[in-house]
Write a structure and sequence with these properties.
Number of strands: 0
Structural class: mainly alpha
Radius of gyration: 21 Å
Largest sheet: none
Shape: globular
Order of helices and strands: HHHHHHHHHHHHHHHHHHH
Length: 379
């Protein structure tokens, strides 16, 4: 029984490594700043409320097959490998701006794997998976709802929606052009394909279409809240009440560990901010070096924790946002979303996962170097 419990704990730590680290940091920091009412004040409830709403809404879209249907319709008229790669990569790039990078990869990487197998183009799987991962991380940079660190930084920065998008637009635009060029260069020897998407295209029932209509309305509501047009408390209440009456099953499909990761980091960061010596060291380390520190920290602890950790010790949230977003490129853990593609590839092609890691790293380093040069040029 004890062995079974230890195995469950080990499995949980492997699966939720970032959450485990966040909890450990929060607990350790509590020895210096003892728990009290101030802990509640550390937590950014607005970010958590909006994040929960978006996760519920996106889970609803997934369960109703909306994303698969969109992908199948886009692929219906593809005639060669260049068009196929372009559609599969573009799906991740553009969808990640609204449904987050991890959801885009969870949806469209398995979808791509199935498509490539059906049209006998498995030789492209490493290329497509690497480009899809890049596309999801790069496309998600543009909007506050594209990834968790953007939602947090946008919330505390006080920037307008247009202003925040303006921060990230040059890098997203350059990224899109680079992805387009890479797709056409790598598919220069394009060959014709025969692809039947009918078996993939699920015809939604009347109830499914009705649910998707409800989720679209709730998504629009959440965007109003992100833009600070609608109070987040009201938006969250509406989302919860509507889903309780229309689709309670969706509550079981949300990654609540992400919420607890945020809470743990909020507590840790709040405690660190109350230790003057630590606060002074972190401020001196980050101030004026937001881009470099953001990129560097992301390589080690990934960009979401890096954003949460560093944001409290600088006033230059624009450069920090750029740093942690560009910092999602590089190592496999620089963006935790990248692990999704890797795990899917390793599950299906375990013997060649080293080959995938090699090309993943090369592509990430090259894209990161180009985007840093863009930053230097426009700064």
């Amino acid at each position: 029984m004890m062995d079974n419990m230890l195995q469950k704990i080990t499995d949980f730590i492997k699966k939720e490594t970032v959450l485990t680290i966040a909890i450990a940091f929060a607990v350790a920091s509590a020895f210096w700043v003892h728990p009290g009412p101030q802990y509640v004040g550390y937590i950014d409830w607005r970010v958590l409320g909006i994040l929960l709403s978006l996760m519920l809404i996106v889970a609803g879209f997934q369960s109703n097959g909306l994303f698969d249907a969109i992908g199948s319709r886009l692929l219906a008229k593809t005639q060669n490998t260049a068009q196929l790669m372009l559609v599969l990569v573009s799906l991740c790039f553009f969808s990640s701006m609204f449904i987050t990078n991890d959801v885009a990869l969870l949806t469209f990487v398995p979808f791509a794997c199935t498509i490539l197998q059906k049209c006998h183009q498995e030789r492209l799987i490493v290329t497509v998976f690497v480009l899809q991962t890049l596309a999801a991380n790069l496309g998600s940079m543009l909007t506050p709802v594209g990834n968790p660190q953007n939602l947090y930084l946008y919330s505390i920065s006080g920037a307008g929606l247009g202003e925040f998008v303006g921060w990230m637009a040059p890098y997203t635009l350059v990224s899109g052009v680079l992805l387009l060029l890479v797709v056409f260069v790598l598919s220069a020897g394009k060959c014709r394909i025969s692809l039947e998407t009918g078996s993939l295209l699920q015809v939604s029932s009347a109830s499914g279409r009705k649910k998707n209509g409800i989720y679209l309305a709730l998504f629009a509501l959440s965007l109003f809240s992100v833009a600070r047009v609608l109070p987040w408390e009201l938006m969250l209440a509406v989302v919860l009440i509507v889903l309780i009456f229309t689709d309670r099953a969706v509550f079981l499909q949300v990654d609540y560990c992400l919420l607890f990761t945020f809470i743990s980091f909020f507590i840790f960061i709040g405690n660190m901010g109350n230790i003057e010596a630590v606060r002074s060291v972190l401020q001196s380390l980050v101030a004026g070096r937001e881009l470099a520190v953001g990129i560097g920290a992301s390589q080690i602890i990934s960009n979401v924790p890096a954003a949460l950790l560093l944001a409290d010790f600088t006033h230059d949230l624009k450069n920090l946002a750029i740093g942690v977003n560009l910092g999602g490129l590089g190592t496999l853990i620089a963006s935790m979303a990248s692990l999704i593609s890797y795990k899917i590839y390793a599950h299906n092609y375990n013997k060649t996962k080293g080959h995938y890691l090699l090309w993943f790293t090369i592509a990430n380093v090259l894209f990161l170097a180009v985007l840093v040069l863009v930053y230097v040029f426009i700064s």
